[in-house]
Structure formats: C-alpha cells, structure tokens
Amino acid sequence: MKRPSYATNKVLKQFINNTLKEDIQDGDHSTLSTIPKDLQQQAKLLVKQDCILAGVELAEIIFKTFDKSLKVKTFIKDGETAKVGDVAFIVSGSARSILSTERLVLNCMQRMSGIATLTHDWDSRLIGSKTKLLDTRKTTPNFRVCEKWAVAIGGGTNHRYGLYDMIMLKDNHIDYNGSITNAVKMAKDYIKKNKKKLKIEVETRNLEEVKEAIKAKVDRIMLDNMNIDTMTEAVKLINGSCESEASGGITREQLKEIAATGVTFISAGALTHSAENIDLSLKAVK
Length: 286
Description:
Blueprint: H1 10-24, H2 29-34, E1 40-47, E2 51-52, H3 56-66, E3 71-74, E4 81-82, E5 87-94, H4 95-124, E6 132-134, H5 144-153, E7 167-169, H6 171-177, H7 180-194, E8 200-204, H8 207-216, E9 220-224, H9 228-238, E10 243-247, H10 255-259, E11 265-267, H11 270-273, E12 280-284
Parallel strand pairs: 6-11, 7-8, 8-9, 9-10, 10-11
Antiparallel strand pairs: 1-5, 1-12, 2-4, 3-5
C-alpha cells in the first residue's frame, strides 16, 4: 500500500488545529500574563532517553501552523538514533509562541518516538527475510496519522489507514454473511458497481477457510492466530497466488519464526498500543 504523504495530509492539519484549540481555547493565560508580547527567545528539544527520534518534522509543522515566524534548526532528523543529552533541534522566535506550542509538540514527539523505537526494534528482527512488518488500526482515536507516521519512521510499513482504503473481511463480516465465498462475491460486486479501486483481504482461521479464500481469488489472506505449523501449510497452499499476512497476538519473540514460514506480512497492534513514551523536554536556552 502506498505510504501517504504525512506532512501534507489533510487529517494532520485538522489534528493540529483541533489540538491547539483544545489546549488554548480563549488564550494561554499563563503565558499572556507573564511574557511580553515582543520577547524573542530560543528553546532546545532535549533528549532524556535513548531512542529512535520521531516527530521532528511534525514539530516544525506545529510551530509554523501556530506562528509562521518561528524558526527551527534541526540537528537530529526523524528516524535517526538519539542519545541521552542530545539536542534534537532549537526553535527560535516569539517566546509566547514557543510556550503555547510546547506541550503539543512534546506530547506528539514523545508518543511518536516511542512507537518508532519499538517498531525499529521489531523490524530489525526481520532483517534477512522478505517479510514486512505492518501496523494495524489499533491506534489512539484522532492520533492515527501521527502513530502511523511514527511506524513508517521506525522502519515499519503502514497497513490500511482506515475503513475506506481497503476491504478487509474479518470473522464477523464472514459470520454475518454466511461464508467467505459469499462475502467476497458481494465485495467484488460492490467494487464494480461503485467503481472503486480497492484491494480485498480476507481473514481466515483454519486451512479450510484458507482454501476457500484462495478459490475466491482475493488480494491478501490473513492467517489469524495460527500456530507455526498451520501457518507454514497455509503459505504452501497460497503458493504466491496472493499476499499473506500473519496476525493475532504477535510477539517480538515470534517474529523470526513467523517470517521463516514465508508470509508476505506480519501485522502487530503492539507497535501502536503497547509502545512506551520517550522522555523528551523543551528547555529554554539561557
């Protein structure tokens, strides 16, 4: 799936505007009451925990969305290793603007750096294989664009962004519909009728469902919560006729063994829902 252009993403712009409004509303009164309007200052982004840094580009977008005159000098880019004590960037300009955007920048960067660091660690275990690591839709509401951006920065691959850019027929779709065959036929009819360009993925729970999905000629077959032996047999049955995706309770320790089965993708919700925030701080330059 084509990686979206995050920096120009409309959802990202909406997110920034909404979060600034949420935090500031009728004014940052702490800053307005104590900081002169014309005061010009600098602040540095201090790294307080080793990590794969993420959110640097987003930070600049946030600063400039709030105040176009703010200037950012970057020393560590997105996706680069950062060590305790490193300064990632220095922002210069209105002291009021720096203070009013500080928390939003930190919230985003701490979360994104945690996700990028975890993704980098998991993805490094797939080196030497052709299997790609995918994220999922198990994201924080209204923060998905940033979390998926962080996965990409960490070396992972983005799965579908939402419900609108791929048809994924999961167990409930199939159970409600009666069978994989029926669900896929209806999905293909829907695509044709509405002139959509959407890939179809089907979740399977056993080898019989894998065989049915193969006959239905879908674009990708998800192998859900299968053990290694079953997954290996499923990949043999698929035999390159479509993409395959291992999913369901994936752990870091399983990655190499799962990749050895020959699956095209491994998807893991843990990349976004289990990542710990990285300790970062925005400090005034005295």
